[in-house]
GntR family transcriptional regulator
Amino acid sequence: MKENSKYIQVKNQIKDWILEGKVKPGEKIYSENELVKLFGVSRHTVRQAIGVLVHEGWLYREHGSGTFCSNRLLQQTKRESSKNIGVITTYMSDYIFPSIIRGIEQYLSSQGYSLIMASTNNDLEKEKQCLQTMLSKNIDGLIVEPTKSSSANPNISYYLNLEQHNIPYLMINQYYKEINPPHLVVDDEKGGFLATEHLIQYGHKKILGIFKSDDLQGVNRMKGYIDAFRKYNLPFFPDMIVTYTTETKEEKIAEIRSLLEGKERPTGLICYNDDVALSVLNVVRSLNLSVPGDLSIVGYDDSQLATASEVKLTSVSHPKTQMGIDAAKRIIAKIEGKSLENGTDSFVYEPELIVRESTKKLSSKIVT
Amino acid sequence: MKENSKYIQVKNQIKDWILEGKVKPGEKIYSENELVKLFGVSRHTVRQAIGVLVHEGWLYREHGSGTFCSNRLLQQTKRESSKNIGVITTYMSDYIFPSIIRGIEQYLSSQGYSLIMASTNNDLEKEKQCLQTMLSKNIDGLIVEPTKSSSANPNISYYLNLEQHNIPYLMINQYYKEINPPHLVVDDEKGGFLATEHLIQYGHKKILGIFKSDDLQGVNRMKGYIDAFRKYNLPFFPDMIVTYTTETKEEKIAEIRSLLEGKERPTGLICYNDDVALSVLNVVRSLNLSVPGDLSIVGYDDSQLATASEVKLTSVSHPKTQMGIDAAKRIIAKIEGKSLENGTDSFVYEPELIVRESTKKLSSKIVT
DNA sequence: TATTTTAACTTGTACGTACATCATCTTCAG
DNA sequence: CTGAAGATGATGTACGTACAAGTTAAAATA
């Protein structure tokens, strides 16, 4: 590599601009044609110079818009990229999660990255092990679905350690408020609200809610459910909320059964997800009641299960695969020093209610 | 980065030579001018291709003497254990696969190994990319679910190269007969037989079969289906078998619909899997027929879907999570030099028929 | 005003040429 | 037989052109 070759000179000049602070991180540098005029060299030479700087991580190019100064050159500890992204999930076989994973994998592989996976089974001790593994694996970035996010997390120090190692991470579905990391989540409160509002507008008054209490998603959906009651000035009634945890699902379903057998049975039911909705649907069938005739049911997640049954479930939908793609996109952008549009690290997806056959209007006079 | 650009093609071809073992570490590759003639492109394009590969660490150049294959790969042969196991699957969000993955992950993490995942979407080109990624990732072992296993596979050389690098691999669900690798599979032929025999013993004679034709699982299940007809000396009838591929599922379901509308409609239906069974169930409902009243349906996989519907599906069950655990166990045993008890590298799981509500006995008078 | 289309500008790919620089093998002189 | 000069062929630098493809903002249209 000749020291006095033209492209080296151009390279060094541009590098100087960056080091002197004339070009700040994220800012656009001169276009190739401008550099051609400036230095009086050919475009090929300019591209060669820029190519080296891109390779070394000083710049990045964006097709059609320009060449920019990289963001993370300051504390660049010269870790060589392993092209591995870690992903920690709660349940691997959860019926909803594969679509997120698929989105992540799709984008990662298109960018030449690989995916290292681990799952916690919603156990905090296991989460700790996963984080330890990831830290020892030389990953470039980490995507985490937090475990038991509704309670305090003892593994905070690991996440802080990630920051010290300059490994970007991002949380999906939920996030630990204590560290307020970049996150992609669905507005579950709104989702719960939409589901409940739907039944209220259909004239239902006695609407039962069953929610999972050991993660934030469940807690938030429940909030939305309660909000809807408040907003429509509906009275609360006893036993209107059933909560369950990973360990107590079965017995709580049995509880629902006895509630449905009582004569004061509810006319509507908001479920934490489609899986629970189907469990309840089974109970309803065994009691010789009909859906939506005797009971309207709303699910959540709009999963494959929602349309598997004879009664297609009304369910709250959210962009699962898209969230995976976005997560991968953001983590890679951060790794490669690209700045995302408007600086915001996080995004909240709006849920949407898909009305199918499992809910119906109550034919009472009270409905406007 | 256009995938079909010339320099990418040249790059991939050269990378192939390395990964297939045609060019060994330290060896000189063709000179730029030779490559120009070989590919019929300009020298600039060749240099661009080589530039990328040098950048990625596959090659290095020596001014005046030539371009050589990096010996970074050589260090991998006497590599220290990375404690990484690669897993290549077809569909990540397939409703059946998560349980296998869960089994794999469970055992791997208990043994301190990590899981690197990639999926092919049942596309052979993508499988090639996945294998390339895995080969370049320093993995200790590889678990593969083969892609389009019913047709010839163009990626054989990659598997052979794995052997050269002393990386054990194992196939699940299906396997390429050409290389006869260690494999864990379900006896799908028997599964298809069991399902069909069940309907025959219930007095059915006109039994339709719908199978996926682009993977071996489908072909084998179909074999079992045909075997059952032979064994029970039942006559074959026209249109008794419908086959579909990944791309043509929808239209074939429509075909089933018209068969069911005809007056000579079948009384039984053997489905490739539960997903198809549910699709057909939807069609049956829309025709105002009843299951199992007018039509008995048998699914396959005994998945979550089988019990999601109001008519619980009779389905063929097989040990999904167990297969994952076994796969992980065997691959790690091989890595760590442990010998497995009975010497056999492969195992065939016996499927089991779970009889539920979607099938019923035909009373003899109705049977013509 | 809001939306669509167009034009201008950006980087990406691909071809061509010429000569410089370095390593290696061949040839020839000693 | 040995050493130096030269021929050959490899990569490195540098110039040029042309068009493709993506982005953005101005201009035209509804």
